[in-house]
Write a structure and sequence with these properties.
About 65% of the residues lie in helices and about 0% in strands. The protein contains 20 helices and no strands. Helix 2 runs antiparallel to helix 4 and helix 11 packs across helix 12. The longest helix is centred in the C-terminal third of the chain and has 34 residues.
Length: about 500
C-alpha cells in the first residue's frame, strides 16, 4: 500500500499530509474559542483533502506500474519547497487576517525549509494556534529533509555524501553499490518507516523533559519541535524567554548534538576506518568548535580588560561561559536559539554584537544527512584534511600521506568537490546579497539576510546585527529573493546543477 502511494508525485503526497495536519491547529483554535482561525484551518484542510483525492484518482492509471527515478524525486522535492507553501499559507493568511498573502507565503517557506525567520516577530502579533501551525510545518520540514537525505540525496551523491563516495555528484555510486538492492520508491518507504518513529520519539521525549523543567505545555511543544527540526521557531520569541530556565537549556543542548552527525542514530555515513561516534570527524570537529569559540570569547574578558582592575566573580563567569557554549552550538546547528545568559557572555567578552562569529558558525552548519543547514561539517573537514596535507608537503615534498582508503578519498576527490561547493555557495551568497541590496537593504543587512536564508538560520537576522532587521518592511522583490535563498539553501546549489545534468535522468 505504501509503495503504491509513493508512486504518486511527491508534492501531491505532501499536500495530503499537510491537509491532515491542518486539523490539529483547527482543533487547538476551537479549544481556545477562536472560531475564525479554527474555520480557516478546517476548511483549508477539508478542501485540500478533497483536491488531493480528486487529483489522485484522476492520475491513478497514469502512475500505475510507474517507478519514479531518483532525479524525479529530487525535482519533486524542489517543486515541493516552491509550490507547497502556496497551500500551507492559505489558512495562515486567513487566520492572521490583516496581512498580505505574500507575507504568509514567505512565512511558510521559512517554516518548511526549517529557516525559522518570521515576518511577525512582534509579541502578540499572531495567536498561539498560528504559532502551532508554524511549528508543525517546521517540524514536518525537518522530517522531510531527514528522509530525503537518506533516500534521495545519498543515492545521487548529493547533500554532503559526494565527499565520501566515488561517483560524480548527481549519479549513483555503482562501484560501492550502496543502494543497488532497493528501488527509489522502496528506499523512500524504508527511510520513512525507519526515521519517522525515531524523530517522533525524540520530539516526545524532549517535550516531556521541557515540561518537567517548568515550561508551559504549548511552549514546550513548539520548542521541542523546533529543536529537532533545527528551525528555531518559538511562540515566545526564543528559548531564553521560556520558563524552563537553565534546566531546559541543558536538555535542549543535549538534543542539539543530534544535528552534529548522523552517526548519533545511524552508521551509513562512516568516514573513517574506526567506527563509533567519537571517531566521527564531523562530531569531533563540531565539538571542537563548540569548545574553542566560547573559550576564546571567555578569555577575551581578560585580554580586553588587562589594564582594568576588576574582581572576577565565579558565578558570572560560569554563566557567561555557559551562555556562549549553548549559543555557539545552537547557531552551528543552524537552530538559532539564544541562551538566557548570552547577553552576559557578550558583556563578559566585551563584544557588543559578535555577528561575524554567529554568521561564521551558521555558514559552517551541522552534519551531513541531518536537519541542519549550512556548508556542512564534512565538507569543512575535507578541506581541512587537504590543507593539512599540503602544508606537510611544503615541509617534506617527498612524504607519503598516512591515511586509509576512505581518508585518501576525502582528502583528494572529496576536498575537490567540497571546494567546488564552497565556491558555489560563495557565488550564490554574493548574488543574493546584491539582489537584496537592490531591494533596499544596506550591505550589512543584505549580507545577514542572504546568509540567514542560504544557511537556513532565520534567527540570525535578529541576532547578528545591532539593529534587528524587519523582514516585513522589505518590498515584494526582496521577499521573493529571500524565499528563493531559503529554498536554495535547503536543496543546495549542487543539487540544482545535478538536475540539469542529462546523466541524472538516465534510468
Amino acid at each position: 500500500m505504501t509503495a503504491r502511494l509513493l508512486r504518486f508525485p511527491l508534492i501531491l503526497i505532501l499536500a495530503g499530509i499537510a491537509a491532515l495536519m491542518m486539523f490539529l491547529p483547527a482543533l487547538d483554535a476551537l479549544m481556545r474559542d477562536d472560531t475564525s482561525v479554527a474555520r480557516a484551518f478546517f476548511y483549508a484542510g477539508l478542501l485540500g483533502l478533497a483536491a488531493v483525492v480528486s487529483v489522485g484518482l484522476a492520475i491513478s492509471d497514469r502512475v500505475a506500474g510507474r517507478e519514479p527515478t531518483d532525479a524525479q524525486h529530487l525535482g519533486s522535492l524542489l517543486l515541493a519547497y516552491l509550490l507547497l507553501p502556496l497551500y500551507l499559507a492559505l489558512p495562515f493568511y486567513e487566520g492572521v487576517g490583516n496581512t498580505t498573502y505574500l507575507n504568509a507565503y514567505v512565512e511558510m517557506v521559512s517554516s518548511l525549509t526549517t529557516t525559522g525567520a518570521t515576518m511577525f516577530g512582534a509579541s502578540g502579533r499572531i495567536v498561539d494556534s498560528l504559532h502551532l501551525w508554524r511549528g508543525l510545518v517546521g517540524w514536518g520540514g525537518g522530517l522531510l529533509i531527514w528522509i530525503s537525505a537518506s533516500a534521495v540525496l545519498a543515492p545521487m551523491s548529493l547533500g554532503g555524501f559526494e565527499v565520501t563516495v566515488r561517483a560524480e555528484p548527481g549519479q549513483d555510486d555503482a562501484v560501492l553499490g550502496r543502494f543497488q538492492r532497493a528501488r527509489p520508491t522502496r528506499r523512500v518507504a524504508l527511510a520513512a518507516r525507519t526515521l519517522t518513529p525515531i524523530y517522533l520519539g525524540l520530539t516526545l521525549v524532549l517535550w516531556i523533559a521541557l515540561m518537567a523543567g517548568g515550561e508551559r505545555a504549548f511552549v514546550a511543544l513548539i520548542h521541542a519541535m523546533s529543536t529537532l527540526a533545527t528551525s528555531g521557531i518559538s511562540s515566545v520569541g526564543g528559548l531564553h524567554n521560556g520558563a524552563s530556565g537553565l534546566g531546559g537549556e541543558i536538555v535542549v543542548f543535549g538534543f542539539l548534538l543530534f544535528a552534529l552527525s548522523r552517526l548519533t542514530f545511524s552508521s551509513d555515513t562512516v568516514t573513517t576506518a574506526r567506527s563509533g561516534l567519537f571517531n566521527d570527524p564531523e562530531f569531533r570537529l563540531g565539538l571542537a568548535l563548540v569548545l574553542t569559540v566560547p573559550l576564546v570569547l571567555f578569555a577575551r574578558h581578560w585580554i580586553g580588560s588587562i589594564e582594568v582592575a576588576e574582581a572576577a566573580r565565579p558565578a558570572e563567569a560560569l554563566r557567561a561561559l555557559w551562555g556562549a557554549v549553548f549559543t555557539v552550538l545552537s547557531f552551528l546547528t543552524t537552530t538559532g536559539f539564544e541562551s538566557a545568559d548570552w547577553q552576559q557572555a557578550q558583556a563578559w567578552s566585551g563584544l557588543g554584537a559578535p555577528g561575524l562569529i554567529l554568521m561564521g558558525l551558521a555558514m559552517i552548519g551541522g552534519g551531513v544527512a541531518t536537519t541542519a543547514g549550512g556548508v556542512r561539517l564534512l565538507r569543512v573537514y575535507a578541506l581541512y584534511l587537504h590543507a593539512r596535507r599540503e602544508f606537510e608537503r611544503l615541509v617534506h615534498p617527498s612524504s607519503v600521506g598516512r591515511a586509509s582508503g576512505v581518508g585518501r578519498r576525502i582528502r583528494r576527490q572529496g576536498a575537490y568537490i567540497a571546494w567546488i561547493f564552497f565556491m558555489l555557495f560563495a557565488l550564490t551568497l554574493t548574488a543574493i546579497t546584491a539582489l537584496l541590496a537592490l531591494a533596499g537593504l544596506d550591505f550589512e543587512g543584505a549580507l545577514i539576510v542572504a546568509l540567514a536564508g542560504l544557511s537556513t538560520t532565520g534567527p540570525l537576522i535578529s541576532s547578528a546585527s545591532d539593529v534587528p532587521i524587519r523582514l516585513i518592511e522589505l518590498g515584494s522583490f526582496g521577499k521573493l529573493v529571500f524565499s528563493g535563498a531559503m529554498v536554495l539553501g535547503r536543496v543546495e546549489t549542487l543539487a540544482l546543477i545535478a538536475l540539469i545534468n542529462p546523466a541524472a535522468w538516465r534510468e
